[in-house]
Design brief:
Bound molecules: adenosine-5'-diphosphate, magnesium ion
CATH superfamily of the largest domain: P-loop containing nucleotide triphosphate hydrolases
Number of helices: 13
Strand order of the largest sheet: 1-3-4-5-2-6
CATH class of the largest domain: Alpha Beta
Radius of gyration: 22 Å
Shape: globular
Number of strands: 6
Largest sheet: 6 strands, mixed
Structural class: alpha/beta
Order of helices and strands: EHHEHEHEHEHEHHHHHHH
Distance between the termini: 50 Å
Length: 308
């Protein structure tokens, strides 16, 4: 617990409004998340390098030379691993500075948006200028802005009639605060995610130091996610692990192409619920169950379903 911001490590209920979690980094549980996301390693290392650079260079190079804001944005369809990656990245960044005492604050934008006019803007301003600024004063701080489209709404797409002016002001407040914090705290990094990049205000995107699009997993990644998931469940139910050597495995993996990582893992759960009997004893699952679940997921959740 630090003297300057004791509430940040206090009980969850005592956290400032808008912050739903605060934790010390590194945190091995988050390292496991980073490892669990299967994607192009070059993208992962690009993310890590950019995050590290934030903490090495920003305090040394003037913002008139490189106007860094300390914001990295991950965009992509729901279920592609953005939130997991962001949490894992926070851990890996702290780990890179061995011995550094980093802190991760997780912002829950939905709790800031209030139906009361004028309240959202104030809540956003207070969060950034007080809670986040206080944390940044005590040491290197990473802030997760999950589903940031809620906070930095694309103002050009909003009609003033249909949407309260409060939302516009909240977006303005985010931008003003980002500028102010970028000036004051080079040891602060925002990791933002968005499922709907087109809904994020362009002035916010323009302030991002790096924007990474997290794609749907490709063929090999799908197969690896499926393997990883079956192996994980297999630690409890050994027959599930053996599905990897089923003659149907390759077809199951091929059916997963077009699904996001979350859907692939949920599909495995669906296979384990193929019948009540299997659900009672998941060791009874067969390759046929897995294939049927994969085919069904493809129809109901695949790219075709997403495009409607
Ligand atoms: N590329 C991937 N590799 C492995 N697992 C993934 C991948 N993408 C998503 N997942 C799994 O899907 C779940 C949801 O991930 P999450 O980080 O919440 O996605 P998002 O924030 O993009 O909606 C997690 O359990 C995660 O492990
Ligand atoms: Mg998410």
């Amino acid at each position: 617990m630090t003297k300057n911001a004791p509430h940040l490590q206090a009980h969850e209920n005592d956290l400032p409004k808008g912050i739903h979690r605060a934790r010390a980094l590194p945190d091995p549980a988050l390292g496991a998340l980073w490892d669990s996301i299967i994607m192009d390693e070059r993208v992962k290392s690009q993310l890590l390098s950019q995050a590290v650079l934030n903490f090495t260079m920003r305090s040394k190079v003037d913002r008139t030379v490189i106007p860094l804001h300390g914001v990295i944005l991950l965009t992509g369809e729901p279920g592609t691993g953005k939130t997991s990656l962001a949490r894992g990245l926070a851990h890996r960044t702290a780990q890179a500075f061995s011995g550094g005492r980093f802190r991760l604050l997780e912002v829950e934008p939905h709790t800031l948006t209030s139906s009361a006019m004028g309240k959202t803007q104030k809540a956003v301003s207070d969060l950034f200028s007080q809670a986040i600024a206080e944390a940044a004063m005590t040491g290197p701080t990473i802030v997760l802005l999950d589903e940031v489209e809620t906070l930095a709404v694309d103002r050009s797409r909003l009609s003033l009639d249909a949407n309260p002016i409060d939302i516009h002001r909240a977006t303005d407040a985010v931008l003003v605060q980002l500028d102010a914090l970028a000036d004051r705290f080079p040891n602060l990094l925002f990791l933002a995610t968005s499922n709907f990049p087109e809904a994020v205000d362009s002035a916010f995107t323009s302030r991002c130091d790096l924007v990474v699009r997290v794609p749907l997993p490709g063929k090999e990644a799908c197969e690896q996610i499926l393997r990883d998931c079956l192996a994980g469940v297999g630690r409890t139910y050994p027959s599930v692990a053996r599905l990897v050597s089923s003659p149907l495995f390759a077809r199951c993996a091929a059916e997963c192409v077009g699904l996001d990582g979350r859907a692939i893992r949920k599909m495995v759960a669906n296979a384990l619920a193929a019948t009540t009997e299997v659900a009672m004893d998941p060791n009874k699952v067969t390759g046929e169950h897995l294939l049927a679940a994969a085919q069904l997921a493809k129809v109901s959740r695949g790219e075709g379903a997403k495009r409607k």
